[in-house]
Design brief:
With 725 residues, this protein is an alpha+beta fold. It is built from 15 helices and 39 strands. The protein has an eight-stranded mixed beta sheet. It has a four-stranded antiparallel beta sheet with strand order 8-9-10-11, with no helix packed on it. Helix 13 packs parallel to helix 15. The protein is elongated, with a radius of gyration of 31 Å.
Length: 725
């Protein structure tokens, strides 16, 4: 049947019997931060038409040095023009792309051949508002002066108030004047002020289109219409400890003691907090740079929020480089750990309980990448990581048993879980025992993908051999992983006595049934050994595994309290690691089904599970489900996840639980804490086995995740399935 592609953001791909929504890759805006630390508290920042950025700190001009994504720069003295040192500068402004300075006596600039030089008589001047090349407003603690054509045209004093801010109004010759308790309008042509609104606790003001907006120190934002009548207050904000409000590029930007946020015309909020975005969360000011990027000034430095046009394909290249540069350890897909405050140069590649699982996910992604692009680098990556997976089976003396990990000998006490490590027969190496079911399903998923789609005979045969080895071990040992001590590992159990020992509503009964049938199907599909098929049907027909795996997800829940301790432990709340195991298993469950009747049943189970996952907007679950051919796998949400995932994968501390702009929900079995999941770039970095509704977390910038499993797997799988093109 012909395939139809419609060249729009979301297109329709025709399959037999139904149409499937897909995504045509197109440029979008990817944001990231470049941070600069200061040695003294900065007061203001400005940029000019040449891309130069100047800051003011304690009367001294500063500039930026170095700085790029993940490599912070510094704020240093600006000595580029020697004779500026004599000036007691109190503010910097920008006019026509040029720096304009205010000192205690004059307004001046080095632009226009230095001809701008206008004396003022505002004692304790603090702020400058350029209206045009010939018109300026200067203000101090309680005095405002309007200068025109080099002379004072008007001035006024507010003796009972302390001026906080003066900003341009809606008219060219109007300014908004804010004190801590009053908003006034300064009419420069009429040379008078008019009180507009009185209150208390004001901190900043902005003219935003036809509206005027006041930031209050504890009550949120006040909105006034073009007639200056108060129309509404908005306390539903990420923070109520507001410090500054600005109208920039048609959007409202707000700075607080807990970060910055912007509100678009529809009221949607984007939150920038934590060291992912800012040097610190105490926002002092926000300016629009001449290059279109935002400059967020904080107590301890400056952050440039870069808005870069990028496609998903270009983002994939960035992540591919990230993985190869600092996340491949012995062929494993590893985490960079032991970092100091996000400094990637201080980290080391650490071992993990799940080296095999995270590497399986990266490995499958590289196989998909190779088939899609024919890039020899992807094939070499596949070969190297498959060799690492292969060695998991040979590093220990147990036939068909995969180690969790391996590492050079003599360092057991420096590794995670030192009690689980064993001496290897291979000289200079140790291996990690207690391999679990999540490792096993990850292995079979990746080996199945490679065996199915990689044409290289050597690699294909290697993957099939590993499938056979693992599944032969499991079948020979009555559906257990048998460790070095001759006993089953804690979680490597698919035996009917164990699985059916759980009540029907305990998730592990369904999960382990689903996984083992997927694994046996995969083994039979590629080895054609009848024992795997026979054992699978025995489990389904004799031991109820088909019924178990088909049980609807809405029947999975908490134990009734009469079950054994393990059943109660496993059903306290939904385990999101189970989701990862289910969906990785679904690849083999659906694609290698023994017959069409089973394939339709398995599709029913997969779609039933997928439906309850939709609120998480998890790209991998949606994209895996797309293989069943359903009309829409949640493509919009999958693309949203891929686009919104941050380029910075460092484990910064994230806190969202204090936000007033998110709607919380009552406690529930799945631990969905909010009505709508937050974007990935506002959440802590987490793998697919985590709860995406968790609002707080991080570890102080001490680790960086690899993009290999988090992002590259769903992206390249989507490319392979032709739902991203």
């Amino acid at each position: 049947m012909k395939r139809l592609l419609v060249s729009i953001g979301l297109s329709v791909l025709l399959f037999p019997l139904y149409a499937q929504v897909t995504h045509r890759d197109h440029p979008y805006t990817q944001e990231y931060a470049i941070k600069y630390t200061a040695t003294s508290e900065p007061q203001t920042v400005e940029s000019d038409r040449n891309g130069n950025i100047q800051l003011l700190s304690n009367g001294s001009l500063k500039k930026l040095s170095g700085g790029e994504l993940l490599l912070p720069g510094t704020i240093v003295d600006d000595n580029s023009y020697r004779f500026m040192k004599d000036k007691a500068i109190v503010d910097i402004a920008q006019l026509d792309g040029q720096f304009v300075y205010l000192d205690k006596r004059v307004i001046f600039s080095n632009a226009w051949a230095g001809t701008l030089y206008i004396p003022h008589d505002v004692e304790d001047a603090v702020g400058l508002i350029p209206l045009s090349k010939t018109e300026y407003v200067v203000y101090g603690k309680n005095k405002i002066q309007y200068l025109k054509d080099g002379k004072s045209a008007w001035s006024t004093t507010l003796p009972q108030s302390t001026l906080l801010e003066v900003v341009k109004g809606n008219d060219a010759h109007q300014v908004l004047i804010l004190t801590d308790g009053e908003l006034l309008l300064g009419e420069l042509n009429n040379m008078k002020t008019k009180s507009l609104y009185k209150g208390n606790g004001f901190v900043s003001v902005a003219q935003h289109g036809n509206e005027v907006i006041i930031a209050h120190k504890s009550e949120g934002l006040y909105f006034f219409n073009e007639s200056y009548a108060l129309t509404r207050k908005n306390p539903k904000l990420p923070s109520l400890a507001l410090q500054v409000v600005r109208s920039l590029n048609g959007e409202l930007w707000v700075g607080s003691k807990q970060g910055a946020f912007r509100m678009d015309k529809g009221g949607e909020i984007k939150y920038y907090a934590s060291k992912r975005w800012l040097v610190d969360d105490g926002v002092v000011d926000i300016k629009l740079g001449t290059d279109g990027n935002m400059l967020i000034l904080t107590d301890k430095g400056l952050s440039k929020i870069i808005s870069k046009t990028m496609t998903l394909a270009e983002k994939a290249i960035f992540y591919e480089n990230q993985v190869r540069a600092r996340h491949i350890r012995n062929g494993f897909n590893s985490t960079l750990s032991g970092m100091t405050d996000g400094d990637i140069s201080t980290g080391y590649m650490s071992d993990s309980d799940n080296d095999g699982l995270w590497t399986s996910m990266y490995l499958a992604g590289q196989a998909f990448r190779y088939v899609v692009t024919k890039d020899p680098e992807a094939l070499q990556n596949t070969r190297e990581s498959l060799d690492a997976m292969d060695r998991l089976y040979g590093i220990n003396p147990i036939k068909g048993f995969p180690a969790r990990s391996f590492e050079r000998t003599g360092h057991i006490n420096e590794l995670a879980d030192p009690e689980r490590w064993q001496k290897s027969p291979h000289k200079d190496w140790d291996w990690k025992a207690t391999t679990s079911s999540d490792e096993a399903i990850g292995h079979i998923f990746a080996f199945g993908v490679i065996a199915e789609i990689i044409e290289d005979r050597g690699i294909k045969d290697q993957a099939i051999r590993l499938i056979d080895s693992l599944m032969s071990h499991i079948v020979a040992h009555e559906y257990y992983l048998i460790d070095y001590d001759g006993k089953p590992t804690e979680w490597g159990k698919w035996n009917p006595t164990y699985v059916n020992g759980f009540s029907k509503n305990v998730g592990d009964r369904k999960l382990n049934s689903s996984n083992i049938i997927a694994m046996l199907q995969t083994a039979y599909h590629f080895t054609k050994k009848e024992i795997f098929k026979t054992k699978a049907f025995e489990l389904m027909d004799k031991h109820g595994y088909l019924e178990n795996l088909m049980r609807p997800m809405d029947q999975i829940g908490k134990s009734d309290g009469t079950e054994d301790d393990l059943s109660q432990l496993l059903s306290v709340y939904w385990n999101h690691s189970d989701d990862e195991m289910y969906f990785l298993g679904y690849w083999g469950l659906y694609r290698y089904a023994f017959n069409k009747e089973l394939k339709e049943k398995f599709k029913e189970a997969i779609v039933d599970h997928w439906k309850i996952e939709l609120p998480e907007k998890e790209a991998l679950w949606n994209i895996i489900t797309a293989m069943t051919g359903i009309p829409d796998c949640g493509m919009n949400d999958a693309v949203w996840y891929l686009q919104k995932y941050p380029l910075d994968l460092i484990h910064w501390n994230i806190k969202n639980s204090d936000r007033k702009d998110i709607e919380m929900v009552e406690g529930n079995f799945r631990n969905q804490y909010t009505k709508v999941v937050l974007p990935p770039d506002e959440l802590k970095i987490s793998r697919h086995n985590a709860n995406r509704f968790v609002l707080d977390g991080g570890n102080g910038g001490r680790a960086e995740n690899s993009a290999g499993d988090i992002w590259l797997l769903p992206y390249w799988m989507g490319r392979y399935l032709q739902i991203i093109h």
